[in-house]
Amino acid sequence: MTNTPEEIALSYMTRAGNIGVSDYAREYPDNARVALEHLGDAPVGDLDMLDDWVLSRPLAAGALAAPSRTLSDADLPAQGVRRLQWSDTAGGEQATRELCSCPEEVVVLGGDDDPRAVGARIDTAERVRWKGRHTVVVEVPTALRSEAAAAVATGRADAVILTQ
Question: Whole-structure pTM over 0.85, yes or no?
Answer without folding.
Answer: yes
